[in-house]
Design a protein that fits this description.
By secondary structure, the protein is α/β, with parallel strands linked by helices. The N and C termini lie far apart (about 70 Å). The protein binds pyridoxal-5'-phosphate (PLP). This is Glutamate pyruvate transaminase.
Protein backbone atom coordinates (compact mmCIF):
# COMPACT_ATOMS: atom_id res chain seq x y z
CA UNK A 1 0.00 0.00 0.00
CA UNK A 2 1.03 3.62 -0.39
CA UNK A 3 1.27 5.45 2.95
CA UNK A 4 -0.01 9.01 2.75
CA UNK A 5 0.54 11.68 5.42
CA UNK A 6 -1.14 15.09 5.13
CA UNK A 7 -2.24 14.18 1.61
CA UNK A 8 1.35 13.41 0.51
CA UNK A 9 2.60 9.88 -0.30
CA UNK A 10 5.46 9.09 2.09
CA UNK A 11 6.44 5.58 1.07
CA UNK A 12 5.11 2.49 -0.58
CA UNK A 13 5.12 -0.70 1.50
CA UNK A 14 3.99 -4.30 1.38
CA UNK A 15 1.84 -3.86 4.54
CA UNK A 16 -1.56 -5.53 4.17
CA UNK A 17 -4.55 -3.48 5.32
CA UNK A 18 -6.20 -6.54 6.74
CA UNK A 19 -3.74 -7.63 9.51
CA UNK A 20 -4.87 -7.78 13.15
CA UNK A 21 -2.34 -6.11 15.50
CA UNK A 22 -0.79 -8.45 18.06
CA UNK A 23 -0.96 -7.46 21.72
CA UNK A 24 1.88 -5.97 23.76
CA UNK A 25 4.05 -8.12 25.98
CA UNK A 26 2.79 -8.74 29.50
CA UNK A 27 4.72 -10.09 32.49
CA UNK A 28 3.96 -13.72 31.64
CA UNK A 29 5.85 -13.25 28.35
CA UNK A 30 9.00 -12.16 30.16
CA UNK A 31 11.99 -14.05 31.47
CA UNK A 32 10.73 -15.45 34.81
CA UNK A 33 14.23 -15.11 36.27
CA UNK A 34 14.09 -11.36 35.66
CA UNK A 35 10.62 -11.22 37.19
CA UNK A 36 11.86 -13.03 40.29
CA UNK A 37 14.73 -10.59 40.88
CA UNK A 38 14.10 -8.06 43.66
CA UNK A 39 16.17 -5.02 44.61
CA UNK A 40 14.78 -3.29 47.69
CA UNK A 41 17.34 -0.45 47.69
CA UNK A 42 15.37 1.01 44.82
CA UNK A 43 12.10 -0.77 45.72
CA UNK A 44 8.59 0.26 46.78
CA UNK A 45 9.59 2.78 49.49
CA UNK A 46 12.15 4.65 47.32
CA UNK A 47 9.66 4.68 44.43
CA UNK A 48 7.06 6.28 46.73
CA UNK A 49 9.75 8.77 47.85
CA UNK A 50 10.15 9.87 44.23
CA UNK A 51 6.37 10.39 43.95
CA UNK A 52 6.44 12.47 47.12
CA UNK A 53 9.37 14.49 45.80
CA UNK A 54 7.34 15.38 42.69
CA UNK A 55 4.31 16.18 44.88
CA UNK A 56 6.45 18.38 47.11
CA UNK A 57 7.69 20.34 44.09
CA UNK A 58 4.11 20.88 42.87
CA UNK A 59 2.44 21.63 46.18
CA UNK A 60 4.75 22.00 49.19
CA UNK A 61 1.82 22.33 51.61
CA UNK A 62 0.49 18.87 50.72
CA UNK A 63 3.14 17.01 52.76
CA UNK A 64 4.31 17.49 56.37
CA UNK A 65 8.04 17.93 55.49
CA UNK A 66 10.10 20.17 53.25
CA UNK A 67 12.45 17.68 51.63
CA UNK A 68 13.03 14.02 50.94
CA UNK A 69 16.03 12.61 52.80
CA UNK A 70 17.47 9.73 50.79
CA UNK A 71 18.76 7.47 53.53
CA UNK A 72 17.96 4.42 51.39
CA UNK A 73 21.13 4.17 49.32
CA UNK A 74 24.87 4.64 49.79
CA UNK A 75 25.11 7.40 47.20
CA UNK A 76 27.08 10.19 48.93
CA UNK A 77 27.09 12.77 46.14
CA UNK A 78 23.30 12.57 45.82
CA UNK A 79 23.36 14.17 49.28
CA UNK A 80 25.81 16.89 50.27
CA UNK A 81 29.17 15.21 49.64
CA UNK A 82 31.27 17.26 47.22
CA UNK A 83 33.53 15.43 44.77
CA UNK A 84 37.20 15.58 45.75
CA UNK A 85 38.90 18.46 43.95
CA UNK A 86 41.94 16.34 43.11
CA UNK A 87 39.83 13.71 41.32
CA UNK A 88 37.84 16.16 39.31
CA UNK A 89 40.84 18.28 38.31
CA UNK A 90 42.69 15.24 36.97
CA UNK A 91 39.55 13.95 35.29
CA UNK A 92 38.93 17.32 33.64
CA UNK A 93 42.41 17.16 32.06
CA UNK A 94 41.86 13.58 30.95
CA UNK A 95 38.52 14.50 29.40
CA UNK A 96 39.86 17.62 27.69
CA UNK A 97 43.66 17.34 27.30
CA UNK A 98 43.82 20.59 25.30
CA UNK A 99 43.45 22.38 28.64
CA UNK A 100 47.05 21.44 29.30
CA UNK A 101 48.14 23.57 26.31
CA UNK A 102 46.63 26.61 28.00
CA UNK A 103 49.18 28.16 30.36
CA UNK A 104 46.55 30.08 32.31
CA UNK A 105 44.71 26.83 33.04
CA UNK A 106 47.85 24.86 33.84
CA UNK A 107 48.97 27.58 36.26
CA UNK A 108 45.75 27.23 38.26
CA UNK A 109 46.26 23.47 38.78
CA UNK A 110 48.83 21.95 41.15
CA UNK A 111 51.92 20.88 39.19
CA UNK A 112 51.96 17.29 40.42
CA UNK A 113 48.38 16.93 39.25
CA UNK A 114 49.15 18.11 35.70
CA UNK A 115 52.10 15.73 35.58
CA UNK A 116 49.86 12.93 36.79
CA UNK A 117 47.27 13.64 34.11
CA UNK A 118 49.97 13.70 31.39
CA UNK A 119 51.39 10.39 32.56
CA UNK A 120 47.98 8.78 32.70
CA UNK A 121 47.11 10.04 29.22
CA UNK A 122 50.32 8.55 27.84
CA UNK A 123 49.10 5.09 28.85
CA UNK A 124 45.36 5.54 28.48
CA UNK A 125 45.25 7.47 25.20
CA UNK A 126 41.78 8.99 24.89
CA UNK A 127 39.21 8.27 27.61
CA UNK A 128 36.77 8.20 24.70
CA UNK A 129 38.34 5.05 23.23
CA UNK A 130 37.55 1.48 24.30
CA UNK A 131 40.38 0.12 26.42
CA UNK A 132 41.55 -3.47 26.87
CA UNK A 133 38.55 -5.39 28.29
CA UNK A 134 40.49 -6.22 31.44
CA UNK A 135 41.37 -2.54 31.86
CA UNK A 136 44.27 -0.29 30.84
CA UNK A 137 47.50 -2.25 31.60
CA UNK A 138 49.19 0.71 33.34
CA UNK A 139 46.20 1.13 35.66
CA UNK A 140 46.08 -2.59 36.43
CA UNK A 141 49.72 -2.42 37.39
CA UNK A 142 48.92 0.44 39.71
CA UNK A 143 46.12 -1.59 41.36
CA UNK A 144 48.47 -4.54 41.80
CA UNK A 145 51.03 -2.26 43.48
CA UNK A 146 48.34 -0.88 45.78
CA UNK A 147 47.27 -4.37 46.86
CA UNK A 148 50.88 -5.52 47.35
CA UNK A 149 51.51 -2.52 49.59
CA UNK A 150 48.21 -2.82 51.47
CA UNK A 151 48.61 -6.52 52.28
CA UNK A 152 52.35 -7.05 52.22
CA UNK A 153 51.85 -9.88 49.70
CA UNK A 154 52.52 -9.71 45.99
CA UNK A 155 49.74 -9.01 43.54
CA UNK A 156 50.09 -9.27 39.76
CA UNK A 157 48.53 -6.96 37.13
CA UNK A 158 47.52 -10.11 35.20
CA UNK A 159 45.14 -10.93 38.07
CA UNK A 160 43.48 -7.52 38.07
CA UNK A 161 40.27 -6.77 36.16
CA UNK A 162 39.09 -3.18 36.18
CA UNK A 163 35.30 -3.22 36.30
CA UNK A 164 32.29 -0.92 36.03
CA UNK A 165 31.85 -0.67 39.80
CA UNK A 166 31.87 -3.81 41.93
CA UNK A 167 28.43 -4.72 40.56
CA UNK A 168 29.72 -5.75 37.16
CA UNK A 169 32.36 -7.99 38.78
CA UNK A 170 29.59 -9.71 40.76
CA UNK A 171 27.61 -10.15 37.61
CA UNK A 172 30.57 -11.73 35.68
CA UNK A 173 31.30 -14.09 38.55
CA UNK A 174 27.72 -15.19 39.11
CA UNK A 175 27.05 -15.56 35.37
CA UNK A 176 30.06 -17.82 35.05
CA UNK A 177 29.59 -19.89 38.20
CA UNK A 178 25.83 -20.49 38.01
CA UNK A 179 24.74 -23.81 36.59
CA UNK A 180 21.10 -23.47 37.56
CA UNK A 181 19.12 -24.33 40.69
CA UNK A 182 21.53 -27.11 41.70
CA UNK A 183 24.33 -24.53 42.19
CA UNK A 184 24.36 -22.94 45.65
CA UNK A 185 25.82 -19.61 46.69
CA UNK A 186 26.37 -18.96 50.38
CA UNK A 187 25.28 -15.42 51.05
CA UNK A 188 25.13 -13.57 54.36
CA UNK A 189 21.74 -12.68 55.78
CA UNK A 190 21.20 -9.79 56.00
CA UNK A 191 22.91 -9.12 52.66
CA UNK A 192 23.23 -6.43 50.03
CA UNK A 193 20.42 -7.44 47.63
CA UNK A 194 22.66 -7.32 44.54
CA UNK A 195 23.48 -10.92 45.46
CA UNK A 196 19.95 -12.34 45.75
CA UNK A 197 18.91 -10.36 42.66
CA UNK A 198 21.85 -11.68 40.60
CA UNK A 199 21.19 -15.23 41.78
CA UNK A 200 17.54 -14.88 40.77
CA UNK A 201 18.65 -13.68 37.31
CA UNK A 202 20.85 -16.74 37.00
CA UNK A 203 18.21 -19.10 38.41
CA UNK A 204 20.70 -20.31 41.00
CA UNK A 205 20.13 -21.10 44.63
CA UNK A 206 20.91 -18.79 47.53
CA UNK A 207 22.18 -20.66 50.59
CA UNK A 208 21.66 -18.13 53.36
CA UNK A 209 23.97 -18.05 56.34
CA UNK A 210 22.81 -15.87 59.20
CA UNK A 211 24.98 -13.24 60.81
CA UNK A 212 24.79 -13.22 64.59
CA UNK A 213 23.27 -9.86 65.51
CA UNK A 214 23.86 -10.15 69.24
CA UNK A 215 27.58 -10.76 68.66
CA UNK A 216 28.30 -7.76 66.39
CA UNK A 217 26.88 -9.58 63.35
CA UNK A 218 29.64 -12.20 63.51
CA UNK A 219 29.86 -15.35 61.38
CA UNK A 220 30.18 -18.85 62.75
CA UNK A 221 32.31 -20.79 60.26
CA UNK A 222 31.06 -24.17 61.52
CA UNK A 223 27.49 -23.17 60.61
CA UNK A 224 28.68 -22.60 57.04
CA UNK A 225 30.13 -26.10 56.84
CA UNK A 226 26.80 -27.48 58.04
CA UNK A 227 24.85 -25.51 55.40
CA UNK A 228 27.16 -26.93 52.72
CA UNK A 229 26.47 -30.47 53.92
CA UNK A 230 22.71 -29.95 54.26
CA UNK A 231 22.54 -28.43 50.78
CA UNK A 232 24.39 -31.42 49.36
CA UNK A 233 21.82 -33.74 50.91
CA UNK A 234 19.14 -31.72 49.05
CA UNK A 235 21.03 -32.01 45.74
CA UNK A 236 22.49 -28.49 45.78
CA UNK A 237 26.25 -28.19 45.32
CA UNK A 238 27.61 -25.20 47.25
CA UNK A 239 29.86 -23.37 44.82
CA UNK A 240 30.65 -20.04 46.27
CA UNK A 241 30.93 -18.16 49.57
CA UNK A 242 30.13 -14.45 49.52
CA UNK A 243 31.71 -12.32 52.25
CA UNK A 244 30.79 -8.65 52.55
CA UNK A 245 33.42 -6.92 54.66
CA UNK A 246 32.84 -4.31 56.06
CA UNK A 247 29.21 -5.36 55.96
CA UNK A 248 26.25 -3.86 54.18
CA UNK A 249 23.72 -3.48 55.76
CA UNK A 250 25.26 -4.40 59.13
CA UNK A 251 28.33 -2.13 59.24
CA UNK A 252 30.27 -4.97 60.93
CA UNK A 253 33.94 -5.79 60.27
CA UNK A 254 35.19 -9.37 60.09
CA UNK A 255 38.04 -10.37 62.34
CA UNK A 256 41.08 -12.00 60.67
CA UNK A 257 40.56 -15.19 62.71
CA UNK A 258 36.97 -15.47 61.43
CA UNK A 259 38.19 -14.96 57.86
CA UNK A 260 40.79 -17.71 58.42
CA UNK A 261 38.11 -20.14 59.68
CA UNK A 262 35.94 -19.32 56.67
CA UNK A 263 38.84 -19.85 54.28
CA UNK A 264 39.42 -23.28 55.81
CA UNK A 265 35.78 -24.18 55.04
CA UNK A 266 36.23 -22.81 51.51
CA UNK A 267 39.43 -24.84 51.06
CA UNK A 268 37.79 -28.05 52.26
CA UNK A 269 34.62 -27.70 50.17
CA UNK A 270 36.06 -26.03 47.06
CA UNK A 271 34.04 -22.84 47.52
CA UNK A 272 34.99 -19.86 45.39
CA UNK A 273 35.24 -16.93 47.79
CA UNK A 274 33.86 -13.58 46.66
CA UNK A 275 35.22 -10.93 49.03
CA UNK A 276 33.14 -7.81 48.57
CA UNK A 277 35.42 -5.22 50.14
CA UNK A 278 33.95 -2.03 48.71
CA UNK A 279 33.79 -0.41 52.19
CA UNK A 280 37.42 -1.12 53.10
CA UNK A 281 38.12 2.59 53.61
CA UNK A 282 34.97 3.18 55.70
CA UNK A 283 36.25 1.97 59.06
CA UNK A 284 35.31 3.59 62.37
CA UNK A 285 36.19 0.93 64.88
CA UNK A 286 38.66 -1.95 64.61
CA UNK A 287 40.66 -2.67 61.51
CA UNK A 288 39.95 -3.88 58.00
CA UNK A 289 42.05 -6.87 56.97
CA UNK A 290 41.54 -8.13 53.44
CA UNK A 291 40.62 -11.74 52.70
CA UNK A 292 43.58 -11.82 50.29
CA UNK A 293 45.96 -10.97 53.15
CA UNK A 294 44.55 -13.66 55.45
CA UNK A 295 44.69 -16.21 52.64
CA UNK A 296 48.32 -15.29 51.91
CA UNK A 297 49.15 -15.62 55.62
CA UNK A 298 47.48 -19.04 55.79
CA UNK A 299 49.46 -20.20 52.76
CA UNK A 300 52.62 -19.05 54.46
CA UNK A 301 51.74 -20.68 57.79
CA UNK A 302 50.51 -23.95 56.36
CA UNK A 303 53.12 -25.29 53.96
CA UNK A 304 51.14 -28.48 53.29
CA UNK A 305 49.34 -26.72 50.42
CA UNK A 306 45.87 -26.89 52.02
CA UNK A 307 45.11 -23.34 50.99
CA UNK A 308 46.82 -23.31 47.59
CA UNK A 309 43.69 -24.17 45.66
CA UNK A 310 41.42 -21.59 47.28
CA UNK A 311 39.90 -19.41 44.57
CA UNK A 312 39.30 -15.85 45.63
CA UNK A 313 37.81 -12.86 43.82
CA UNK A 314 38.19 -9.62 45.80
CA UNK A 315 36.22 -6.53 44.83
CA UNK A 316 36.71 -2.83 45.38
CA UNK A 317 34.95 0.26 44.07
CA UNK A 318 35.25 4.02 43.63
CA UNK A 319 31.61 4.37 44.77
CA UNK A 320 32.32 4.22 48.51
CA UNK A 321 35.15 5.18 50.86
CA UNK A 322 35.68 8.93 50.78
CA UNK A 323 35.43 8.98 46.98
CA UNK A 324 31.68 8.45 46.71
CA UNK A 325 31.99 8.51 42.91
CA UNK A 326 29.06 6.13 42.38
CA UNK A 327 28.08 7.52 38.99
CA UNK A 328 31.55 7.09 37.47
CA UNK A 329 31.37 3.30 37.69
CA UNK A 330 34.95 2.50 38.70
CA UNK A 331 36.08 -0.65 40.44
CA UNK A 332 38.37 -3.63 40.27
CA UNK A 333 38.42 -7.36 40.90
CA UNK A 334 41.53 -9.30 41.88
CA UNK A 335 41.56 -13.02 41.10
CA UNK A 336 43.67 -15.42 43.14
CA UNK A 337 44.04 -19.14 42.57
CA UNK A 338 41.86 -19.59 39.46
CA UNK A 339 42.82 -21.89 36.59
CA UNK A 340 43.98 -19.99 33.53
CA UNK A 341 41.02 -21.27 31.48
CA UNK A 342 38.51 -19.96 34.04
CA UNK A 343 40.19 -16.59 34.06
CA UNK A 344 40.02 -16.58 30.26
CA UNK A 345 36.26 -17.14 30.47
CA UNK A 346 35.93 -14.18 32.84
CA UNK A 347 37.90 -12.10 30.37
CA UNK A 348 35.54 -13.23 27.63
CA UNK A 349 32.55 -12.07 29.71
CA UNK A 350 34.28 -8.74 30.32
CA UNK A 351 34.99 -8.42 26.61
CA UNK A 352 31.31 -8.89 25.74
CA UNK A 353 30.78 -5.53 27.51
CA UNK A 354 33.87 -4.26 25.62
CA UNK A 355 35.45 -2.40 28.54
CA UNK A 356 34.67 -0.69 31.84
CA UNK A 357 34.21 3.11 31.56
CA UNK A 358 37.70 4.50 31.00
CA UNK A 359 37.19 7.59 33.18
CA UNK A 360 36.05 5.21 35.95
CA UNK A 361 39.27 3.21 35.47
CA UNK A 362 41.26 6.42 35.85
CA UNK A 363 39.39 7.17 39.08
CA UNK A 364 40.40 3.79 40.49
CA UNK A 365 44.02 4.86 39.99
CA UNK A 366 43.38 8.19 41.73
CA UNK A 367 41.59 6.48 44.63
CA UNK A 368 44.35 3.98 45.33
CA UNK A 369 47.18 6.36 44.56
CA UNK A 370 46.27 9.70 46.11
CA UNK A 371 48.66 12.68 46.34
CA UNK A 372 51.48 12.20 48.83
CA UNK A 373 52.88 14.56 51.41
CA UNK A 374 55.06 17.21 49.81
CA UNK A 375 53.06 17.30 46.57
CA UNK A 376 51.19 20.50 45.80
CA UNK A 377 47.77 18.84 45.69
CA UNK A 378 48.27 17.00 48.99
CA UNK A 379 47.06 19.56 51.55
CA UNK A 380 43.66 20.18 49.96
CA UNK A 381 43.17 16.46 49.30
CA UNK A 382 43.94 15.68 52.93
CA UNK A 383 41.62 18.41 54.20
CA UNK A 384 38.72 17.29 52.03
CA UNK A 385 39.07 13.56 52.74
CA UNK A 386 39.50 14.17 56.47
CA UNK A 387 36.33 16.29 56.55
CA UNK A 388 34.36 13.51 54.82
CA UNK A 389 35.65 10.82 57.19
CA UNK A 390 34.97 12.99 60.24
CA UNK A 391 31.41 13.80 59.13
CA UNK A 392 30.65 10.11 58.49
CA UNK A 393 32.03 9.09 61.84
CA UNK A 394 30.12 11.81 63.67
CA UNK A 395 26.80 11.12 61.97
CA UNK A 396 27.14 7.37 62.43
CA UNK A 397 27.53 7.77 66.18
CA UNK A 398 24.76 10.41 66.47
CA UNK A 399 22.34 8.12 64.68
CA UNK A 400 23.46 5.09 66.65
CA UNK A 401 22.93 6.97 69.92
CA UNK A 402 19.51 8.20 68.75
CA UNK A 403 18.38 4.66 67.91
CA UNK A 404 19.36 3.38 71.30
CA UNK A 405 17.17 6.03 72.99
CA UNK A 406 14.09 5.05 70.94
CA UNK A 407 11.57 2.70 72.55
CA UNK A 408 11.69 -0.80 71.07
CA UNK A 409 14.77 -0.07 68.92
CA UNK A 410 18.21 -1.57 69.41
CA UNK A 411 21.25 -1.07 67.27
CA UNK A 412 24.75 -2.54 67.09
CA UNK A 413 27.56 -0.05 67.26
CA UNK A 414 28.80 0.82 63.76
CA UNK A 415 32.28 -0.43 62.90
CA UNK A 416 32.36 0.47 59.23
CA UNK A 417 30.55 0.98 55.91
CA UNK A 418 27.79 3.62 55.57
CA UNK A 419 24.80 1.99 57.22
CA UNK A 420 23.02 1.13 60.42
CA UNK A 421 20.60 -1.78 60.67
CA UNK A 422 18.67 -1.34 63.92
CA UNK A 423 16.15 -3.92 65.01
CA UNK A 424 12.57 -2.89 65.76
CA UNK A 425 10.19 -4.48 68.21
CA UNK A 426 6.78 -3.85 66.68
CA UNK A 427 3.36 -4.14 68.33
CA UNK A 428 0.41 -6.35 67.34
CA UNK A 429 -1.30 -3.22 66.06
CA UNK A 430 1.58 -2.58 63.64
CA UNK A 431 1.28 -6.17 62.37
CA UNK A 432 -2.46 -5.67 61.83
CA UNK A 433 -2.13 -2.28 60.07
CA UNK A 434 0.66 -3.63 57.86
CA UNK A 435 -1.37 -6.70 56.92
CA UNK A 436 -4.31 -4.48 55.89
CA UNK A 437 -1.99 -2.73 53.41
CA UNK A 438 -0.37 -5.95 52.20
CA UNK A 439 2.98 -4.92 53.71
CA UNK A 440 5.51 -6.52 56.01
CA UNK A 441 5.56 -4.80 59.43
CA UNK A 442 8.99 -3.23 58.82
CA UNK A 443 7.89 -2.00 55.40
CA UNK A 444 4.87 -0.39 57.07
CA UNK A 445 7.20 1.38 59.53
CA UNK A 446 9.37 2.66 56.65
CA UNK A 447 6.27 3.80 54.74
CA UNK A 448 4.96 5.71 57.77
CA UNK A 449 8.38 7.22 58.42
CA UNK A 450 8.53 8.41 54.81
CA UNK A 451 4.99 9.83 54.69
CA UNK A 452 5.48 11.71 57.97
CA UNK A 453 9.09 12.93 57.77
CA UNK A 454 10.30 12.53 54.16
CA UNK A 455 13.04 10.14 55.40
CA UNK A 456 13.44 7.33 52.88
CA UNK A 457 14.87 4.07 54.26
CA UNK A 458 14.69 0.38 53.33
CA UNK A 459 12.88 -2.32 55.32
CA UNK A 460 15.03 -5.12 56.69
CA UNK A 461 12.92 -7.60 54.75
CA UNK A 462 14.69 -6.32 51.60
CA UNK A 463 18.03 -7.57 52.98
CA UNK A 464 16.87 -10.72 54.73
CA UNK A 465 16.58 -11.16 58.51
CA UNK A 466 15.90 -13.88 61.05
CA UNK A 467 12.23 -14.80 60.80
CA UNK A 468 10.05 -12.84 63.20
CA UNK A 469 12.62 -10.04 63.62
CA UNK A 470 12.24 -6.65 61.96
CA UNK A 471 14.85 -4.13 60.94
CA UNK A 472 15.35 -0.99 59.01
CA UNK A 473 18.39 -0.02 57.00
CA UNK A 474 19.49 3.56 56.89
CA UNK A 475 22.58 5.33 55.67
CA UNK A 476 24.13 8.07 57.75
CA UNK A 477 25.08 10.16 54.74
CA UNK A 478 22.37 12.83 54.93
CA UNK A 479 23.77 16.18 56.07
CA UNK A 480 23.01 17.74 59.43
CA UNK A 481 21.31 16.12 62.37
CA UNK A 482 17.83 17.76 62.20
CA UNK A 483 16.49 14.74 60.35
CA UNK A 484 17.66 12.48 63.19
CA UNK A 485 15.61 14.62 65.63
CA UNK A 486 12.60 14.38 63.25
CA UNK A 487 12.98 10.61 63.24
CA UNK A 488 13.00 10.50 67.05
CA UNK A 489 9.81 12.60 67.21
CA UNK A 490 8.13 10.43 64.59
CA UNK A 491 9.09 7.26 66.40
CA UNK A 492 7.63 8.42 69.70
CA UNK A 493 4.32 9.23 67.98
CA UNK A 494 4.33 5.99 66.00
CA UNK A 495 4.81 3.93 69.14
CA UNK A 496 1.99 5.79 70.94
CA UNK A 497 -0.39 5.42 68.01
CA UNK A 498 0.29 1.69 67.69
CA UNK A 499 0.12 0.69 71.37
C1 LIG B 1 28.29 -4.46 49.55
C2 LIG B 1 28.19 -3.78 48.22
N1 LIG B 1 28.76 -4.36 47.15
C3 LIG B 1 28.70 -3.80 45.95
C4 LIG B 1 28.04 -2.61 45.75
C5 LIG B 1 27.98 -2.06 44.37
O1 LIG B 1 28.72 -0.91 44.24
P1 LIG B 1 29.25 -0.37 42.86
O2 LIG B 1 28.73 -1.23 41.77
O3 LIG B 1 28.74 1.03 42.77
O4 LIG B 1 30.72 -0.45 42.96
C6 LIG B 1 27.42 -1.97 46.82
C7 LIG B 1 26.67 -0.73 46.63
O5 LIG B 1 26.04 -0.17 47.53
C8 LIG B 1 27.50 -2.57 48.09
O6 LIG B 1 26.92 -2.02 49.17
Amino acid sequence: MTCVLSGKPVFKTQIQNSFVPASRLVDSDLNPNALNAKYAVRGRIPIRAEELRAQLAQDPSSVPFDKIINANIGNPQQLDQKPLTFYRQVLSLLEYPELMDNKAVVDTFPKDLVERAKKMLESIGSVGAYSHSQGVPYLRESVANFISKRDGYKSSPDDIFLTAGASSAVSYLLNLLSLGPQTGFLIPIPQYPLYTASLALNNSTALPYFLNESDDWSIDASSIAKIVQDAKAQGVEARCLVLINPGNPTGAILKPETIADLLAVAAEHGLVVIADEVYQENVFKGEFVSVKKVLSQLKELDRSGKFDKVQLASLHSTSKGVSGECGQRGGYMELVGFEESVRAQLLKLASISLCPPVAGQALVELMINPPTEGQESYELYKKETQAISDALRERSSKLYEAFNTMEGVSCQQPEGAMYLFPSLTLSEKVYAEAAKLGMEPDEYYCAQLLENTGICTVPGSGFGQVEGTWHIRTTFLAPGTAWIEDWKTFHEKFVKQHK
